[in-house]
Amino acid sequence: MPDKKDNSLIIQAPTQGISSSPHYGYGDCRNTDIHTIPGVAILNKLLEKKSSTTVVTLVHWFIKNPATPTECYALDSAGKVYKSTDSGATWALMTGNTQTSCHGNGLAIFENYLIVARDGFLDVCGDGTATGITNANWSNSWQTIDSDVLWHPMIISENDNKLYGGAGNYVFSLEELTTFAPGTPATFTYTQQALDLPSGVRIKAIEELGNNLMLGTWKGTNYYDNRFANIYPWDRSSPSFGQPVQMDENGVHAMLNIGGILYVMAGIEGKIFITDGVGYSLVGQIPATIANLDGGSYLLPYPGALVNFKQRPFFGISYGNANLGSMGVWSVLRTARGNVLNFEYTISEGVDGSANPVQIGALIPFTQDVLMVGWRHNTTYGIDKLNNASFATGYTSYDDSPFYKVGTPLETRTFKDLEFQLAKPLASNEGIKFAYRTNLNDSFTEIGTYDFATLGAVISHNTTAKIPSCEFLQIRTYRTGTTTTPHYKYLILK
Prior knowledge:
- 2% of the residues lie in helices and 49% in strands.
- It has 494 residues and is mainly beta.
- It starts with 8 loop residues before the first strand and ends with a strand.
- The model has no long low-confidence stretch (mean pLDDT 95).
């Protein structure tokens, strides 16, 4: 923000999200809700681990049972399926499908049956009733698919109610003829190769756009091998695909249709795009300055970690080959003033990948205000659920201001006084804390903590700034609460 006439510096709440660089705008913002109250930053709700020690590898896919609102399934990277019957509060390993030397490639529910893709096969579980998906109902190796040991994304088409899935460079399909019964071939048509893409292409993501299936692809053994990220449209009936959207990135990793706009996570630099099926444009990118993308480091999004939550895309950012900061759950919102990027949630472990690897394998909005997250932290794995009764605690919510030039080498600047303004008075267990640095390579130095226990129910406060004379300045603002949250508006340095 520009200075006031009295030569003070005004730093507003970070309502425009994280900029591409701290030299242009806010350098960071995490565990903070910048959308609910315009012009005010409040705490985000808290992610809590719900899987105990049950989940032992990274969850790749979630699926909610449309016939039973409290029932959800998770598929991990080893092909194990976990089930929750209480809206994600507890999880149990399903038995009967445990395979050796397989991977969790894809997950869907089709006509009250759970469909699990693993390497070269489809497993099916259920008895055709809404509550019939139990341990006793497995039919393993039910159908053969073309093998790809990484990904078999699946989708139930809203256009024809068929199941479609990716298997290497092929699309397989499953159609109900009469009441679907996996053990009765006359009730369905299964086509192993309903469509073939060019040789060497590997399907990682499937979504619909209009009447077309959109097939997001990559090439090679490693994602950094080829600058190839084609999205192939297919009308589900023609013998071949249409003109692809050719993106100059290292693979398409995830896709999501919101309101007829296709969001696409592509490349290994934390980029998210939109496409209308013809051209494409960038809407957000994780800043390299906070993701530590240097020395050949890269990010690796997962196809099950891009969802529509709170009317905007939420997506997981995961490490690719090094310990990288800012790994967690992000969002981007398109507005008339520009795209607003925000680091919404760190996982329940309270880490962001700076010290040990963090991966976000899958997300699912269980209700309109409850999100579940499948994650890895080093050698620990879990499923988190958003707790709507508790806010981010321990000053884990913070934002970093732009890196201001406030003086010159010959005429540095001194700030003596600090004033902050809230939108409502502080309440019990709420607090604000400020810190500063004068070099982007330095750690932050605390200025002071201002909480309810010390100040009471203040809505504003004036105090000594305690900032040395400087040419450059960046301020970090922390917030904490429990069942309530501070409503932060702005800081003035005089």
